[in-house]
Amino acid sequence: MVATNAVLHHREASAHARRVTDLAPHPHRADREAAVHVLLAQSSLIASPFIAIRLLLGSALRALMFLLGKDFNASGDEVKAVLSVALHPKRLAESRHRIHQTSTEPVSVVNSLRPRLAWQLRQTFEALIGIASTSESAATLSVSAGETGPTDGESDYLDVSSSGLLKRILWRPSVIMVLSLMVFAIIATHALWWGDGVLQGGVLLPTPDGATDLWDMYTQGWHDVGPGSSTPAPPYLLTLFAASAAFLGKSALVVQIVMLLGLAFAGWAAYFTLRGVIVSKPVRVWAAVMYAVLPSVTGAMTAGRLGTVIAAIAFPFAVRSCVRLATSTASVRRAAGTALLLSILIAAIPLFWLIALIFALALGITSWRRDAQGSKRLLKRLAIAIIGPVILLAPWSLQWFVQPVRCLIGSAEHNLSDPDLSPISVFLVHPGGPGMTPVWITAGLVVAGLLALLRRDRSMQIALAVGLSIVGLMFAILQTIVMVTPPGATDAIRPWPGPATLVWGAGLILAAALGADGLRQTMGGASFSLEQPLAVVVTVIAVLTPLGSAVLWLPTAADELQKAPASAVPAFVAADSVGPQAPRTLMLRQAGAGQVLYTLLNGPGAVLGDADMAPPGDVWLPLDADVAALASGRGGSEIAHLSGYGVRYISLVRGTSTDLIPILDGEPGLRRLSSEAGEVLWGIDGVTSRARLITDGVATELDVVGGTPEFMAAVGVGTTPYLDQKIAAATTERQLVVGELANSKWNAVAIDQATGEETSLEPVTLQGALNWSQAFVVPKDAVHVRVTFSQTMRSLWMWLQLIVFIVLVVLALPARRVDEIDPDVEGSGFPAEAVRHE
């Protein structure tokens, strides 16, 4: 068979959808099938099975990529091409036979012509670096001006720039800025990078070692917090779980990096998202550095407010996406991407959903009044962006509507707030709390942001930035006025206005940057007036503001955080707490005259997320009375009540006043176990296991399944099953006390030893000190009982989240687009004068 060059040319063109041919109705499928067939036919007998597996996996991955790129035809062609080769082994065998009969050279002679893996990885790395450093030209390969014509294949492996890749990367303003911020952050927190233990302190609880622990905490329907809780886990645990995948599951390392380098990441996020908005690179650098050292960011790092640090990194991306969503060219893809970004932001700080809702309502109402018919597309996109995160984060997000106070409080970040914070401090971008610089240091930022309104040629953009900041200021001032009772607490507190102040400061920075961008050229051709010296003074103050903030924050950067063991109790208590009976520990701390604070501890110590999963506040009222009686030394029934909660140990926290020691020493039923380095430990006599079996008023200790000691230390006592134990028969009915807060999802069954038949046990409410716990009636002849907590509803919510997430990701992904130059089209390819006959 003779094939001319024209036929070959048209065959190649048809594979790229530039020719229509009756011989191949599906050119992509035919091209892929031919490629797979040729590669397998040319491979050696030993290598062919491995090549076949690689091609199969590669085709599956390519089909998935086509599917995500919404190119369903190409995805189907990819699968059908591989199947066609696999289902016709006879054709492949015939091809291999012909090649074996006619080949004069081995296939290895062409291996050197294929692009090496190192070169492909380098191209990918350069593209990613270009995107991360906001370089407009780094996404494509640069071409040296010294190339005057075609070169041989070896030139492809030469350095594409005379200065070298490393030098080109390091000399970019964004890289210099981020590296400088990282060095500064490392210097400020140098004492926290080394040493044994886990990063903790302030409002930051120790992080479990493994990412799977975070996943288990998030997927559990019942949480081992206090006397037990069914409060949904906060979704920022899922964000940390995903980030931990890049660090081989080291979740504690991820939290340490985010907390200690948070300002550097926030600065990079601000610089990256300002591309295309601020032309001047010095202005962009100033805006990014100013954003990185905002008191909300540095204060959050000092106090261990992980949610605010995550929000500071995600906020610039969410704002940029929201602004693009409001344009007339925005699509459903943009709305889905915005919903995903807002989900990350809202998972850390719920307040941002209220801010996004306010702007969506304002934009929707304005658009509707202007053009009711034409605004439907915009309203549809806004609905996806606002409602999408609520559904994706359910059931955690549904608590906002039942308890709106959760939006003001945030993710357990209300501790360490300043009760005497004034609205003036918030106006000067200071939310109060640890790690604050003097309030006057950011006055220059406020002045620069508000004076930017005087620039007329960018009045609309600056007004929008100031409008955003004012919304944040309103919420920040509100949080300095109101007193709220956090879920899981009984006392009212003042919320920390850090996230709202972050919005206020970010809006001022954006307004000031918009006002300064191009100001030199604008004023250069204008006649002299008062505006020129005023602009110089404001510029000098604005430049000095981030420098002053950084220098003044440096001495206080590590005041609250520390590296310490995750366990808050002695080693033998920690070992007992993850044992078969899983006893609890009551931690006492005297906060002042007549005030005692306590924590009901499960396992060795509290872990990240526990504060967000606490049970309702009224659950603690009986314990409040017992602890008050214990601290008063009245010698009543409080010890019996505490043992009913499974409390086996009472610990006086190190550094607490010693006034409580003689009181507890004289308490009947308590015995001192140890006293070391200011930490005193007592033990409670009697039955102190969580689960117990009561027969004729006499309690017997039962063991819980719990899980492995590592699982119980990080996640808590497992509930599938919670208890699975054989018991002795009795002459009367008994009561099985679970030792966990009563909930309708607890189930208990009696198992027949002979047949294995399960009989459900009837729940019962006990009287007296155990009325808080879930309990069941056990028949007198039952000898094997099992207790579980139903995970059905939690599983359904997880499936809903997965479906919504997949839908949003698929909608947010760009559709596959192929832009190829057709050499047959006039004006494409080489110019006519460059082609000549030899």
Automatic annotation (TrEMBL):
Listed Basic and acidic residues bias regions: 9-21
Transmembrane regions: 34-57, 175-195, 253-274, 286-319, 339-366, 378-398, 437-455, 462-484, 496-514, 534-554, 796-813
Record's keyword terms, sorted: Membrane, Transmembrane, Transmembrane helix
Record region (Disordered): 1-22
Protein name: Unannotated protein
